[in-house]
Amino acid sequence: MFITDRGAVCQSKPSAGVPQRGFTLIETIVFLLVVGIGVVGLLSAISTSVRYSADPLPQKQALAIAEALMEEITSAGFTFCRAGTPNFEVATAADVANCGAGNVEDVGIGGAEAGEVRPFDNVNDYVSNFDVAPIDIPITPIGLAMPAPAGYKATLSIAQAGLLNIGTSEALLISLTVTGPNNTRVVLDSYRTRYAPRVSP
How is the chain split among helix, strand and coil, in percent rounded to 5? Predict the structure, then answer.
């Protein structure tokens, strides 16, 4: 638009080929719809992630408990004589009498000796017998002040298991199961062999 020298007002017309600047109303609406849908999808994904972010925690906690218990059990000795007694390191099945009175490890019979507390000195002390149904095992060792996490339970079974060229009585299959909240379940299996010298690893 411009004014002539006579005061007349004239309307200028856009030149052909010159593009218009800005967005049309339809383009603006479409843009807002696309951005809105994207924001809703992003917020929904974040909400789902935040809501279930704590779900792996029971699984990790159960695994940590299982690994700790398995390490404790497999670190125990697997000997014919009680720790610190005569022939402790060299005794065989044929000369257990040389262990001394009351010092023979009755593997798979009777569990831990009287007065013994965890961690036990021998693998067989953790169960009352081999090749039987799993038994409950306290997650926190006896005498330890720190309480175990709530909602978790551990069961243990130890079976005599022949392993390659190792005799049945010389190898143990240790099976440990830990259950927790949200139907969490962790199962660990490990072998423990009787080797020389027969001391804790």
Answer: 30, 20, 50
The answer to the question of residue 22 being in a domain is: no
Residue 39 lies in a domain: no
The model carries a pTM of 0.66
Q: Per-residue pLDDT tens for 127-145? A: 888 888 888 888 876 556 6
Query: What range does the domain containing 108 cover?
Result: 59-193
Q: Is 20 left (phi over 0), alpha (psi -120 to 50) or beta?
A: beta
| 163 contacts 190 by C-beta, under 8 angstroms | no
**Tokens 């062999």 appear where?**
193
User: Does 26 map to a domain?
Assistant: no
The residues, ordered by sequence, that sit 6+ positions from 82 with a Cβ below 8 Å of its Cβ are: 88, 99, 103, 104, 105, 113, 121, 122
Q: Which residues, 6 or more positions from 13, have their beta carbon under 8 angstroms from its beta carbon?
A: none
Tell me the backbone φ, ψ of residue 39, rounded to 5 degrees: -65, -45
Inside any domain, residue 93: yes
